[in-house]
Amino acid sequence: MTHARGERAALCDLLDRLGPDEPTLCAGWTTADLAAHLAIRERRPDAMPGIALKPLAGYTASVQNRLKTRLPYPELVGLVREPGGVYGLLPALDEAVNTLELFVHHEDVRRAQPDWEPRALPDDLERLIWKRVSSGARLTLRKSPVGVVLHRLGGGVALGGPKGGSRVEVTGRAGELLMFCFGRQAHARVELTGEPDAVSALREATLGV
């Protein structure tokens, strides 16, 4: 099983277990909202642009809400459980595009529940996540108000944010650095080192793609 399929299955098992009305780390979204988002992301190409482009976000939101309302929750989760569209036809593309997306959203559900703890990840998934985090640091940290040095426990350094001025060092496992760089700073188990004002600014910044 690929990592994308493993994260997909684990996420869907968790969604089924929790039901449609539990919170997630996606602001304002319940578990049903997140399931609908993932379903249209793969199965409604007409609604996909609004996920990234604000002028089209209203249409995407309306499609997402209609899907959530129209389908019983178990059927909605069922749509997420099997890769849709081109990802269902090309497992390699599913692995390349969706591993991090599904990992982050799996953690969005896990970490919104009480008493969560970080998972112990397989070494190859840890390496894959770090490879993507390090190569994408300039993009995910482009809105950072301060320079950022990512330190992966186990080896690896990546830079992001402004090249001049204050700098904050962020240290953690690859999965935790991923959550941090994707805007989940408050729910990432990392250590931040730097001037207090710079650390505070980074914690509250809008990060991610």
TrEMBL record:
Domain of life: Bacteria
Name of the molecule in the record: Uncharacterized protein (TIGR03085 family)
UniProt organism field: Nonomuraea fuscirosea
